[in-house]
Write a structure and sequence with these properties.
This protein has 230 residues and is an alpha+beta fold. Helix content is 47%, strand content 13%.
């Protein structure tokens, strides 16, 4: 009936308003963060100019061939297409342990970065067992004597990457090593990273809330539009 249509439309419209409000709040936080990054990371007196090649050696995982992967398994293998998302390929724990112990492997806190496709996407390695596609996903083997990983993470966000390649953009090691950044002392690095990290946490929290609201709306739609009791 028309009255039931209005009731259902009103319920779902209310859900849409909550979702829209949350999306606007996330956009506001992101805009604030961008402005803060531009201000806080702008070089100031006393900051040193450093090339990324001086921070540490570019590292990458051992090459994993397609026949060594499967669509399910113990250890997720992230390719450039699934970097920062959900893995769709896996390797055995035996291969993982062998390659991890014999070849380069990120430390907890190292900043993994995409060197192909969309250049400059970053993931902070959290220590969970995982393997990453060689040459397409790299990191600086950073001992944090020059720059803290937390500060480096935000520097990556403002770098204008030098890209080379025809159909697929590629960040070559030579380009990467020559990129210059400005670095303050460690206490200032910590202060800046702490400020930007706090707003990142707000954004992450609101994004989780947004996903929750979207799931609630989906559940309401499935129930109400099938004529079930709300």
């Amino acid at each position: 009936s028309l009255s039931e249509q209005r009731r259902i439309a009103s319920i779902l419209s209310s859900a849409d308003k909550v979702i829209d409000s949350t999306q606007k709040l996330i956009a506001k936080y992101k805009s604030i963060k961008q402005g803060m990054m531009e201000d806080l990371l702008k070089p100031k007196e006393g900051w040193k100019k450093v090339k990324l090649g001086e921070v540490g050696k570019i590292s990458m995982c051992k090459r994993v061939f397609s026949f060594e992967t499967s669509i399910e398994g113990e250890i997720p293998f992230y390719k450039i297409g699934t970097f920062g998302k959900t893995a769709d390929a896996f390797i055995t724990r035996q291969l993982f342990e062998e390659y991890k112990n014999k070849f380069s492997y990120p430390k907890v806190g190292d900043i993994l970065i995409s060197a192909s496709g969309t250049i400059g996407r970053t993931v902070v390695y959290d220590g969970e067992p995982a393997y990453f596609q060689d040459s397409n996903i790299i990191w600086i083997d950073n001992d944090e004597t020059i720059i803290l990983n937390q500060f480096l993470y935000y520097q990556y966000k403002i770098i204008s990457w030098n890209l080379e390649g025809s159909t697929i953009a590629r960040l070559y090691n030579d380009n990467f090593n020559k990129i210059e950044i400005f670095v303050p002392d460690f206490s200032e690095q910590c202060r800046i990273a702490s400020i930007l990290s706090s707003i990142d946490k707000k954004i992450e929290s609101e994004e989780k809330v947004l996903e929750k609201y979207k799931k609630i709306k989906k559940g309401l739609m499935e129930k109400l539009l099938r004529g079930e009791e709300s």
